[in-house]
């Protein structure tokens, strides 16, 4: 079985400061990991994905994440927050042995203060 | 290329009625997933279809059902609607195998009054 834990339900940063959204996963297999973003009343947009290639993954809008197998973590970072980054972020693990079925973390709401 | 499309965007139903939600996957994708996003409950997996077959379902009562058509589009049916069924229902599609991500539609907002 696989699971995902997002360690913070809410994160608040000031515009221009770094962003860190934490994610730990549990998987019996070599996982595929994703970060999705959801703006209010919208669907989910893929930010980035890890699929056993480079451990540091770069995504859209300046976000990146590092896969650390020893820590079972896949934290999302961005050097400088922008107001438009305010949204809900989901860390997701994919079970390749179940047709890429996704298991979601509980989500982290990112607030960006001016 | 068109993304995942869902219809309708919004749906208002009365308690006890039935709701039908529709999803068209990205061309070439055979797997369709349905998720419920209710306020305060996060994203809950509902159903997974691939090649016309139900492959897995989440912890939801049988009044949540669906099907996948030969063109891989899918329907989610919710019978005997309850107030707590009010939620955003998201559909996603992907390839069945490989290291590929799922792509999501914009969702259907179901309100039960």
Structure description:
The complex is a heterodimer of chains A (114) and B (113). With 114 residues, chain A is mainly beta. Chain A is built from no helices and 12 strands. Chain A has strands at residues 3-6, 10-14, 19-21, 23-26, 32-38, 44-50, 56-58, 64-68, 73-78, 87-95, 101-104, 108-113. In chain A, strands 2, 5, 6, 10, 11 and 12 form a 6-stranded mixed sheet that branches. The radius of gyration of chain A is 13 Å and the shape is globular. Chain A starts with a strand and ends with a strand. By secondary structure, chain B is mainly beta. Chain B contains no helices and 11 strands. In chain B, the strands form 2 sheets. In chain B, strands 2, 4, 5, 6, 9, 10 and 11 form a 7-stranded mixed sheet that branches. Chain B has a 4-stranded antiparallel sheet with strand order 1-3-8-7, with no helix packed on it. In chain B, strand 4 (31-38) and strand 5 (42-50) form a beta hairpin. The A-B interface holds A 32, 34, 36, 41-46, 49, 51-52, 90, 94, 96, 98-104, 106-107 and B 4, 31, 33, 35, 42-43, 45, 48, 50, 55-56, 88, 90, 92, 94-107, 109.
